[in-house]
Design goal:
The complex is a heterodimer of chains A (about 120) and B (about 180). Chain A is an alpha+beta fold and about 120 residues long. Chain A has two helices and seven strands, in the order H-E-E-E-E-E-H-E-E. In chain A, strands 2-1-7-6 form a four-stranded antiparallel sheet, with no helix packed on it. A three-stranded antiparallel sheet of chain A has the order 3-4-5. With about 180 residues, chain B is mainly α. Chain B has one domain: Arp2/3 complex 21 kDa subunit ARPC3 (Orthogonal Bundle). Classes of the chains: A alpha+beta (about 120), B mainly alpha (about 180).
């Protein structure tokens, strides 16, 4: 192992660990249990789901089909018609700032404290 | 038993004999596909879903030491096309080919230009980081959501660890190949 190898490994790990700690910290300070889930298709908000009421929501677009399920304040991808099933395996999310991504169907589910456009006064 | 015939390295043999090169590339592709399919059965989903070890990178990095640029380029493209056809599907093909090509070109530059200063371990770690960066870039452009980059630190940690493993395996293989 050459000297530069050691440096590369150390620097990559140090930078990644620092960035990871930063992201985790930002998440833990900002994260309260989220009240709503915003569903985006190709970065367009298509639906805002209240996480207090259980239910199932179908998201259809020209890329494919996803089924979201809300249960006990959390939301998960119950079904997806893609091959990888990555989003289904991601499990349930409930904390503000967490996201579920279905890459093949270009669906992003983002947990937020309050739906976009409603300010604190309205709340 | 010792023989007196001259010994050639694999790189030299691959340069002089087309048949040798083609046969070896065929074996390499087969190994890449077998490892790539096998990897899908190892769950590494504890942090971020969809993470895999990237052991086929051992073969790619070894090829970089032994073959010409365009031979490896064909190897990398075939790896992505065939793995997508066998297991991944169209959308994962897009991400994997961008990650693979970026990581291959960067590792190729490191090996051809900085071979004396960077060994296989450093090369493979940088290659792993480039692979992740390329995939995330394309993925976040496709879904038009830059939040995906929040996954980057944890993905880099995991892939750098597997990059060290790959680098060690390549180092051992290079040493073993000189004894062939």
């Amino acid at each position: 192992m050459k000297k530069l190898d050691v440096w590369i490994v150390l620097i990559v790990f140090a930078v990644a660990a620092a960035a990871f700690a930063l992201v985790q910290h930002a998440r833990s300070t900002a994260s309260a249990p989220g009240g709503y889930a915003e569903v985006y298709v190709k970065n367009e908000l298509v639906e805002t789901i209240d996480l207090r009421t259980n239910g199932r929501f179908a998201v259809k677009n020209e890329e494919g089909y996803n089924l979201l399920e809300v249960e006990d304040g959390g939301i998960r991808m119950a079904e997806a018609d893609c091959l990888s099933q990555t989003c289904v395996h991601a499990g349930a999310k409930s904390m503000g700032g967490e996201i579920i991504v279905c890459l093949p169907n270009r669906v992003v589910v983002k947990i937020v404290g309050a739906p976009e456009g409603v300010d604190t006064v309205a709340n | 038993m010792r023989t007196d015939r001259p010994r050639f390295s694999i790189a030299q043999k691959a340069q002089t004999s087309g048949t040798y090169r083609i046969a070896l590339l065929g074996i390499f592709l087969a190994v890449i596909l077998a490892v790539g399919l096998f990897e899908r059965m190892i769950p590494l989903d504890f942090a971020v879903p969809g993470v895999r070890l990237g052991l086929s990178n051992v073969v790619i990095l070894l090829s970089i030491y032994w073959f010409r640029f365009r031979d490896i380029l064909i190897l990398v493209i075939l790896k992505c096309v065939l793995l997508a056809a066998m297991a991944g599907g169209m959308s994962s093909f897009l991400y994997s080919i961008c990650g693979s090509l970026l990581s291959f070109v960067v590792m190729w530059l490191l090996v051809t230009r900085l071979k004396d200063r960077i060994g296989p371990i450093g090369t493979s770690v940088i290659g792993a980081v480039c692979h992740i960066a390329g995939q995330l870039l394309v993925a976040s452009l496709v879904i038009e959501n830059m939040q995906l980059f929040l996954f980057m630190p944890i993905l880099v940690l995991i892939s750098a660890a597997s990059g060290v493993l790959v680098g060690v395996l390549v180092k051992l293989s290079l040493a073993a190949a000189t004894r062939l």
